[in-house]
Design a protein that fits this description.
The complex is a heterodimer of chains A (about 325) and B (about 325). Chain A is built from 13 helices and no strands. Chain A is mainly α and about 325 residues long. Chain A is globular, with a radius of gyration of 20 Å. Chain B folds into two domains: about 90 residues, Phosphorylase Kinase, domain 1; about 200 residues, Transferase(Phosphotransferase) domain 1 (Transferase(Phosphotransferase), domain 1). Chain B contains nine helices and ten strands. In chain B, strands 1-2-3-5-4 form a five-stranded antiparallel β-sheet. In chain B, strands 6-8-9 form a three-stranded antiparallel β-sheet. The longest helix of chain B is centred in the middle third of the chain and has 20 residues. The N and C termini of chain B lie far apart (about 50 Å). The chains are: A mainly alpha (about 325), B alpha+beta (about 325). Chains A and B meet through α2, α3, α7, α8 and α9 of A and α2 of B.
Chain lengths: ~325, ~325
């Protein structure tokens, strides 16, 4: 069965909406409170950040050794699987946008999907196993990250060619988790973004700028999920490259690559170059076509946002 | 799709002999059991999957995956395996296989209360150091526990080793902290910002709990034994003074804030009379109203209160 997708319009400019909200309320007391609670900057201690970063990099190293070296190689041997994988990930990202899930949820869904593919063989003639895997990985990621998790049937409302019973998804969940050795809490680029931002933008950041940059970086990171070539890079490398890519658009002056001595400068450069090459070309194919434009930080961005929604709605009718 | 062969793996029932039920966890029962192959004693935590068939509960997913990440620290309980099984009605159940610990801090404190003895000061110091170390390890890996209480702190009474358990409510976080729902936490150890409805909260909520546990180890009574959220707040305010914008900027903007009776702060020594000056200082830093001013677990380990503790085996 399939659903008429016009009944479930995809929310446009997920991150634009977030940034708009933050910009409008920039001067409110709530924002001041948020700023204080989040950063507690009078007591901010760099050594704590450094300690967290070291722990993350150590965990990341252990994680990377286990999996990502071989995944790209194995996937490339099967041309049909490359396309099927991209189709599956596109589906995950649509549901992600529909429910306004966090960026981490999207990234983890794809991570579980990739890791499962690494250890299991799929035959080309059937489409439903990959769809079931997509639903399952998205469900697991949502349970790990989201406060409110849709029902398993509701997760399948968007453009699903197959509809799986909850019991079926549950059995698949157990299979996936056993395959992943129950390691669902994995290091992602999002673990590094704020730590890197605090190194890169120490004195320049205000709450509004920070929120905006985080949204842009998150968008770039999610897009890397669709491009298999990014599988060779560690999460910290992707985070560093995405941040540098975004800030080079937003901030004119050049920034140092030395976010941490354990991060390879060469790999960051290579990843950065790949982002430039791949993501610009693919930008129009994704779901947030206007995210890369700089938003005017004024109330008129509400009108821009409304216009964007109208455009999206009109485009959908074509 | 090719499925991995399950025939060679023992089911939970075949692999373990249940000896006795020792408790009720968040989603199910906990048993002391013996692994038949090795004779080793373990704790089996049985988790029923949702009746509504929505798959594995989020709390189980989080607990297992977080424990898989944290279990190499000696002060976090070790998850050895996850087994699938079926109950009498043929429904799938999961068994989390943990190292077995004989007792917990709640029982430990109660045993001293019953005999009328005080917990030896060096024992308190050792247990508190281990607790700070375990919490620092969790926080250093981006994990909030969010339900620290004596019942969740397992102990070996022979070695006085302490381990953090029950991470079903634990949450991964990135810095800065993301929004979390107002989920259930045991009242007595709940931080004031949670009680007042803050949706952005941080590692500091665990430190508040650590402070409450510290005081309880000394006095053998809960520091703030409220029986409702309001009573919990009033207990806190009576001792630490009713907070205001001077001592806690932003407090009056929190969701659950309203007018409260105005109390002046009392000295902590009135609540914990037998604790020495260094201990009182550490406790006061754990019980700061403003979350960002609360001491971190890592810094607590460096506090002078622990200077005379032999840390070589901890």
């Amino acid at each position: 069965m399939s659903f008429d997708s016009s009944n479930h319009p995809i929310s446009p400019d997920l991150y634009c909406s977030e940034v708009t909200s933050e910009v409008i309320h920039l001067d409110s007391d709530d924002e001041a409170l948020k700023f204080n609670v989040l950063w507690g900057d009078s007591d901010h201690d760099d050594s704590d950040d450094e300690s967290i970063l070291l722990n993350l990099l150590e965990s990341e190293h252990n994680q990377v050794q286990e999996q990502t070296k071989f995944l790209g190689q194995q996937l490339r041997k099967k041309t049909w699987l490359i396309n099927a994988r991209e189709e599956a990930i596109n589906w995950i990202l649509k549901v992600h946008a529909y429910y306004s899930f966090k960026p981490e949820t999207a990234y983890l869904s794809v991570d579980y999907f990739n890791r499962f593919l690494l250890s299991h063989t799929f035959t080309q003639d059937k489409a439903w196993p990959l769809q079931l895997l997509s639903v399952t990985c998205l469900s697991l990621a949502a349970k790990m990250e989201e406060s409110k998790v849709p029902l398993l049937l509701d997760l399948q409302v968007i453009e699903s060619r197959f509809l799986f019973k909850p019991k079926t998804v549950q059995r698949m969940e157990l299979l996936v988790m056993a395959s992943l050795k129950w390691r669902l809490r994995t290091i992602t680029p999002f673990d590094f973004v704020h730590l890197f931002i605090s190194k890169l933008l120490c004195s320049a950041s205000t709450w509004g700028d920070l929120s905006y940059i985080v949204s842009l970086v998150s968008d770039v990171i999610i897009r890397t999920c669709l491009v298999m070539d990014f599988l060779e890079f560690s999460p910290s490398t992707i985070a560093a490259a995405a941040l540098l890519w975004v800030t080079n658009q937003c901030v004119d002056d050049k920034k140092s690559y030395c976010l941490h001595k354990n991060i390879s400068i060469e790999m960051v450069k290579k990843c950065y170059k790949l982002m430039k090459q791949k993501l610009i070309i693919r930008r129009s194919e994704l779901y947030w076509p206007k995210i890369s434009q700089l938003l005017p930080r004024s109330p008129t961005c509400v009108l821009d946002h409304a216009a964007a929604m109208q455009e999206s709605s009109d485009a959908h009718k074509l | 799709m090719e499925k991995p062969g399950g025939g060679g793996v023992l089911s939970a029932k075949e692999a373990f002999e249940k000896l006795e039920k020792v408790g009720e966890g968040t989603y199910g029962k906990v048993y002391r059991a013996r692994e038949k192959a090795t004779g080793k004693i373990v704790a089996l935590k049985k988790t029923r999957l949702h009746e509504d068939e929505e798959g594995v509960p989020p709390t189980t997913l989080r607990e297992v995956s977080i424990l898989r990440m944290l279990s190499r620290d000696p002060h976090v309980v070790r998850l050895m395996d996850v087994k699938q099984g079926q109950n009498k009605e043929g429904k799938t159940v999961l068994y989390l296989v943990f190292e077995y610990m004989d007792t917990d801090l709640k029982k430990f404190i109660r045993s001293f209360r019953q005999t009328g003895q005080t917990v030896p000061p060096q024992t308190i110091k050792s247990l508190m150091y281990q607790l700070c170390k375990g919490v620092a390890f969790c926080h250093g890996h981006g994990i909030l526990h969010r339900d620290l209480k004596p019942h969740n702190l397992l102990m070996d009474p022979k070695t006085m080793m302490l381990k953090i358990a029950d991470l079903g409510l634990a949450r991964a976080f990135t810095v800065p902290i993301k929004k979390y729902t107002h989920e259930i936490l045991t009242l007595w150890y709940r931080a004031p910002e949670v009680l007042l409805g803050a949706t952005h909260y941080s590692m500091a909520v665990d430190i508040w709990s650590v402070g409450c546990i510290f005081a309880e180890l000394v006095t053998k009574q809960a520091l703030f034994p409220g029986d409702s959220e309001l009573q919990q707040l009033l207990h806190i305010f009576r001792l630490l003074g009713t907070p205001n914008e001077d001592v806690w900027p932003g407090v009056s903007k929190l969701m659950n804030w309203h007018e409260y009776p105005q109390w002046n702060p009392q000295s902590l020594s009135t609540a914990v009379p037998s604790l020495d000056e260094l201990g009182l200082d550490l406790l006061s830093q754990m019980l700061k109203y403003e979350p960002s001013k609360r001491i971190s677990a890592k810094k607590a380990m460096e506090h002078a209160y622990f200077d005379d503790l032999d840390k070589r085996h901890l």
